[in-house]
Amino acid sequence: MTDCALCRDDGGLLLWSGQGWRVVRASGGEVAAAPAWYRVIAAAHVAEWSDLSAPEQACAMALVTAVERALRATLTPTKVNLASLGNAVPHLHWHVIARFGWDSRYPAPVWAPAQRDDDALRLAALRQQLPVCDAAVVEALDALSTPSPKENPR
Amino acid sequence: MTDCALCRDDGGLLLWSGQGWRVVRASGGEVAAAPAWYRVIAAAHVAEWSDLSAPEQACAMALVTAVERALRATLTPTKVNLASLGNAVPHLHWHVIARFGWDSRYPAPVWAPAQRDDDALRLAALRQQLPVCDAAVVEALDALSTPSPKENPR
What we know:
The structure is a homodimer of 154-residue chains.
Chain A: H1 5-8, E1 13-18, E2 21-25, E3 37-42, H2 54-75, E4 79-84, E5 93-99, H3 120-144
Antiparallel strand pairs in A: 1-2, 2-3, 3-5, 4-5
Helix pairs in contact in A: 2-3
């Protein structure tokens, strides 16, 4: 659908794609207060989670879980937040967001008003860690994939 | 854990429990703007989604999906929102929320500031539908459960 932002664009920095999904790190204005914000986005234009079959859901959750584990391993967040909302863009996508006790919205959701000023030093330090986190995300997702016949010739 | 609100209390109007989870309809102040707000709550005190095994996740997602389908069938929402945040209460629970184009936050998440006044008439009509939705939720969850030996004597 050409009028759907997630059919038209990657929806962030593209890190990985496969199994009917792609994984991006969010790169819009939403990341100012929560830079470690990843998305697992369906390749197909489908709106609701319950439109998927159980095997399709299991595949999506394996990817979401791999991203969450990579975030936990590399960033040691206070909490990981998962959400599939899609009100603005009804194309199925999971937000996977590392949250920190010092972030300006915590413990409220990232969509709530800020409760305190941004901690510029900690935000800068977190942003510096993101390439390492990106690499861990990609490694975790690659590890999930079934090797292709070419990789296992016999 | 006695200091955990979701270990201590049901966390809403208890509708169903089984398979290591319970399902409630939220009944706190958060429902003023979004009354069709359900939660699928882990019986055990576990914080992160990726702490669960794949079979445990599949069980949880079957319950979340059943709740979502019951909401869609009875309320015909504009969109269903799913989220597992747990910043305030780090005890794994899924929010399953029916959203409507007319609700005061839409299309923003329910945690964002209101964009318009509440539509009191539509909210009242929605609240009147909730017992029917509750019953559909329970029926859908019961249908997922393995029949007990008593129900299948031979």
